Amino acid sequence: MLGTLKPLMLDRVCNNRPIDLACRLLQLPVELLAIILVKLPQESLSNFALASWLCRQLARSRQLSRIVLDCSPRSRNLCKIFFQDMQAVVSSNEPANSYQRYTLGACVRTLTIAAVPEYLSLYEEFDFQS
């Protein structure tokens, strides 16, 4: 396997926008917060994400650290989600520091494109012969 990437620091997952640290956990130094996030079990990240929108961004920084797009239906759905997220940010009338402007893309560390033949055959619109 590729190994585990360390989660991004809080300021990075928030695209360097100002953040409100009402949550006491998020008042810890960002280095300590990153260590805690690494220790959180993968299955607990979804619960952690429910605590606040900042916690959600931090959880995403672990969940989305490595993305592999392999033309599978799951990958295609993920692309749609990223595209919708991008459109929402671009068309948003929210100020730049609004929590609604924090994106999924800020959480991705590596993106691998893998053309898996079994999945490629699912999509007629791609002509890979030409």
Task: Walk me through this protein's architecture.
Helix content is 41%, strand content 6%. The radius of gyration is 17 Å and the shape is globular. The two termini are 34 Å apart. The protein has a two-stranded parallel sheet with strand order 1-2. Helix 5 links the parallel strand 1 and strand 2. The protein has one domain. With 130 residues, the chain is mainly α. It comes from Glonium stellatum. InterPro entries: F-box-like_dom_sf, F-box_dom. This is F-box domain-containing protein.
Protein structure class: mainly alpha
The helix tally amounts to 6
DSSP, total strands: 2
What strand line-up does the widest sheet have?
A: 1-2
Helical content band = 40-55%
Count of individual domains:
1
From the alpha carbons, calculate the radius of gyration and give it in angstroms: 17 Å
Shape: globular
Biggest beta-sheet profile = 2 strands, parallel
Mean pLDDT: 76
Low-confidence stretches: none
> Termini separation (Å)?
34 Å
Order of helices and strands: HHHHEHEH
Please indicate the percent range of residues in DSSP E strands (runs of 2 or more). Answer: 5-15%
Protein name: F-box domain-containing protein
Domain F-box: 25-64
Pfam families: F-box (PF00646)
